[in-house]
Q: What sequence folds into this?
DNA sequence: TAGGATTTCCTACAACTGTTAGGCAACTCG
DNA sequence: CGAGTTGCCTAACAGTTGTAGGAAATCCTA
């Protein structure tokens, strides 16, 4: 079915690799074309434009992240699951900073502008939901009731993403203790908060 | 002292305003020049290039943020100070999303490449330190000892920046409860963690 | 009041990026 | 073998970054 060579998936995958090498923002159409050994107009056979390229990378990478995270979450619950989940995301971000950047650099379109949206935004939204579901699974395994699940997910996501973002930005590089040590401590504290949240919402009152 | 008109500060201030209108990434040299009613080469009298423009915006905005935050922190300590600090940052981010973006879009140069760095990175580093000192002040007011101050700052910064980033990205827009309600709850939980950290490090043991 | 110094701003130009248009070539399937 | 499909190309244009060199406006000083 047609001439062999690159296809859309291969282009996006190469773009994701390139993002890790030179940074997400530096992945432009012309740079990517040079890197692939083709001319830039050729890329328009695979993508519709620069913004499509970016959201496609985001969607692709969000799927990879969900794969890696769910693989790490194979077993365990409660604290073990939290550690597996959080470490998987952090390892992913440190191994592939360009990919992780792609994850954060996307805004949700305010109201999905009719049918003129690039073809990759639906994929990106679906991949985003996959990741959200994994976060929800962690929270559920703590036994947190539905009323507080949303809050728990937001709390956990904020802390994890915030820590990783700051660490990647180099904010923790110039002071002791190591970013490693405080990460473990932060997840510990997060675990305590989630346990407390579960106890609070299940009617168990630890005080008295 | 020369012909009157724009100077560097006015250019950067206009660029920051423009970032809030059209987004930090959309503030390019040519767009900024058009917005100011001048030709783009003229901007090179005030800035050395596109990267200098970006770091200069970051430095300028970090100073504004530190001003706003320290004004809000005029009085109070402990929980009150934390709420004032956190709300000041979040209000700033929601009022000026483009400015807040500028805050996060910067990497610390790995080793300050000799003397070839643009002239604004020193300013940005200094402004970053101002903000870091304010965070430290919050933590200190909880009575957390020096050993744990770094950890406490990282924990607090991660949660606050993470929450604001996700909220600004629209991640909290499609589910209940409101981003407002869970923010208050998150700061509450953070307060509890800091109180616990102070108790732990000061030798007080609440259990038994 | 004239002149010099300083600073803002300009036009002209070169290089690169994003994008469209139209066409050639290679492979698969009937 | 022919037709359809698909990957890739050249040509061309608009817009952006950045450089070079020069003109005008203002301040300071003599």
A:
């Amino acid at each position: 079915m047609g001439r062999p060579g690159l296809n859309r998936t291969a282009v996006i995958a190469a773009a994701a690799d390139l993002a890790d090498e030179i940074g997400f923002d530096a992945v432009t159409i012309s740079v990517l074309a040079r890197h692939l050994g083709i001319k830039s107009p050729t890329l328009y056979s695979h993508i519709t434009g620069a913004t499509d390229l970016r959201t496609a990378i985001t969607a692709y990478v969000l799927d990879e992240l969900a794969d890696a995270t769910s693989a790490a979450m194979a077993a365990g619950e409660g604290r073990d699951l939290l550690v597996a989940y959080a470490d998987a995301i952090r390892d992913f971000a440190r191994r592939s900073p360009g990919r992780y950047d792609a994850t954060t650099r996307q805004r949700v379109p305010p109201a999905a502008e009719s049918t003129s949206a690039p073809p990759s935004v639906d994929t990106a939204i679906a991949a985003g939901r996959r990741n959200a579901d994994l976060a929800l699974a962690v929270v559920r395994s703590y036994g947190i009731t539905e009323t507080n699940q949303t809050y728990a997910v937001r709390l956990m996501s904020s802390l994890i993403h915030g820590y990783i973002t700051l660490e990647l930005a180099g904010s923790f590089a110039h002071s002791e203790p190591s970013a490693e040590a405080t990460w473990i401590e932060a997840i510990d504290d997060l675990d305590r908060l989630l346990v407390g949240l579960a106890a609070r919402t299940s009617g168990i009152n630890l005080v008295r």
Remarks:
- Residues 1-5, 28-31, 40-41, 44, 49-50 of chain A lie near DNA strand C (CB under 10 Å from a C1').
- Residues 111-115 of chain A have pLDDT under 50 and may be disordered.
- Residues 21 and 98 of chain A are 7 Å apart (CA to CA).
